[in-house]
Amino acid sequence: MFTISLKKWLSSKDLKFPELYLVGGTVRDLLLKASPKDLDLVCKGAKEFAADLARSKNAALVPMEKKPDEPCYRVVDKDNHDDFLDIAEMRGETIYVDLHQRDFTIDAIAIEVKEDGTAGSVIDPLNGTEDIERKIIRMVSTKSIVSDPLRILRAVRLAASLNFIINEATLNEMKNAATLLKDVSAERITSEFMLILKASQSVHYFRLMDSLGILQVIFPEIAAMKACAQDGFHHLNVWKHSLLVMENIENIIKDPVYYFGDVGSKVADCLGSNNRLALLKLSALLHDVGKPATGNLHPEKERITFYGHDEEGAKTVDLIAERLKMSGPHRNLIVLLVAEHLHALNIVSGDVRLSTVMRWFRKMRDDSILAIILGMADVLSSRGPDSTEEYRSNFINRSRQCVTDYYEKIKAQIERQDLVSGKDLIALGMKPGPEMGRVLAELRSAQDTGSVKSRIEVLELAKKLMK
Questions:
Q1: Looking at residue 115, what is its pLDDT?
Q2: pLDDT exceeds cutoff 60 at 309
Q3: Would you say the pTM of this structure is higher than 0.90?
Q4: Of 41, 16, 18, 36, nearest to 26 (Cα)?
Q5: Same domain, 355 and 272
Q6: Integer Cα distance of 233 and 303 in angstroms
């Protein structure tokens, strides 16, 4: 497959052909018999060769900043932007020197590229092929991680995405170098974290990072969570409970049809868009981050209470997202889920008015599904003396019904256009202002709950409210 792509690109008589190699993840994917996501090449004089190739193929040349101080150039087909080559400058005078400067042995393998675009010999001085066969991630040298501490997270990300094991020496080096992550840019850290969160069993790797002292470097707030005990519905401290919530989210999403019946496929589609699943897992990890600051021993109930921990948690998560330089939409979603995780429990409980339910769904829209799943995982992870199997089972059943109602009835209802507008109220003699906003909100609530069904009924209600 890769030779066909390279033949197309390299078939030019006018092209001055350098010593050229396929490297890194491209080679690893090929050896794993997977389709490479990118075609990564190295050569001496990468900039000149990339420019020459772009000219000969009438392609676009895009300078890349994949890694600091490592020039790379992307040559892109102007008619198909998904068809491109990445050409990086060879590190050192030979391919052997280059491979010895890479991070892990499974990515320190090269394949010679001949002038006709076909594959030549495999160059594997560090036995990376054997490590691929054994499913082991091993650092190239003791300098690998210290030279770029982000490789600590990259090792975890590769293990999570490939289902490989990190060898003991590499784990020890990651633990020893964990504090160096403070010097890595927030953008690079966030990028790797998001990839780890996208793995099917993220929680296993988060527990691994926790045991190595990695997480607390990136999330100093964890220290207070570990020291915060709970009682009542909870049997674990705040941090262990949060990890268990993440684990239960992964259990739920493995089989959405089991948990949500006929609308399970819609739930899966919802989670599959806009990085929602990864952000839901991160929200699970941080949903109780506000508890250490709000914990108090209630004198009458003789137990610890955490009143307002949802609001406090939302503020803290907002600061964390800002520190990690997360995008606006990603930041807004995790803040929303942390702020709303208690409201979701109340909505599912069925002890609130229909108008309150509809108002919440109108505010949350499809993100309500994420909040409900977070609530389900929260309840499943709470096995203290006040939590019973019956309580947990009933909550899961109510959650399933709530999600079903949303997709079968509520979603269409709240997406209906307003039957009246501010112009209609002005025509009835009302002046613009806060009072008009209050009346419009009440009219919309009446429309959502079905207490008014036509424009005439809404206008009649408006007249009564105006009086």
A1: 87
A2: yes
A3: yes
A4: 36
A5: yes
A6: 11
